[in-house]
Amino acid sequence: QVQMVESGGGLVQAGGSLRLSCTASGLSAVNLYMGWFRQAPGKERERVSCISTSGATKIYADSVKGRFTISRDNAKNTMYLQMNGLRPEDTAMYYCAADRSWAPLVTEGLEADYWGQGTQVTVSS
């Protein structure tokens, strides 16, 4: 059984930084495409960033380009999201997701197989 566990969320002032981590268990991360999603109260879930199995391919939402950096360490079965220049509009529950295929992570209407429980990020102004 694959489990995804996020950590690293918290409360930070605008302009500050946080680093989220997501560790997978039950399956080697080298076989998983992974990504970060977020959902703010009253809003739809939004794709933030995704990364291929090797880390060679990365995509970002326009709203976070230049501020957030996704990475992964397959030896540790862990994916990261370094968030700099945080803004109040970044406030949301952040979820990590994973799938054996790329499409479910990057295609509207498809759903990744594995999800974490989420970690809250709150940015104060």
Brief summary:
The protein is mainly β and 125 residues long. It has one helix spanning 103-106; strands spanning 3-7, 10-13, 18-25, 33-39, 46-51, 58-60, 68-73, 78-83, 92-99, 114-115, 119-124.
Helix-strand layout with pairing:
Blueprint: E1 3-7, E2 10-13, E3 18-25, E4 33-39, E5 46-51, E6 58-60, E7 68-73, E8 78-83, E9 92-99, H1 103-106, E10 114-115, E11 119-124
Structural notes for this entry:
The protein is 3% helix and 49% strand. The chain has 125 residues and is mostly beta strands. The strands form 2 sheets. Strands 2, 4, 5, 6, 9, 10 and 11 form a 7-stranded mixed sheet that branches.
Q: Tell how many strands the DSSP assignment holds.
A: 11
Beta fraction of the residues?
over 45%
The residue-averaged pLDDT reads 96
List the total number of helices: 1
| Span between termini | 40 Å
Instruction: Characterize the overall form.
Output: globular
Order of helices and strands: EEEEEEEEEHEE
Assign the structural class, choosing from mainly alpha, mainly beta, alpha/beta, alpha+beta, or little secondary structure: mainly beta
The percent of residues in helical segments reads under 10%
List its traits.
about 120 residues, four-stranded antiparallel beta sheet, seven-stranded mixed beta sheet, globular
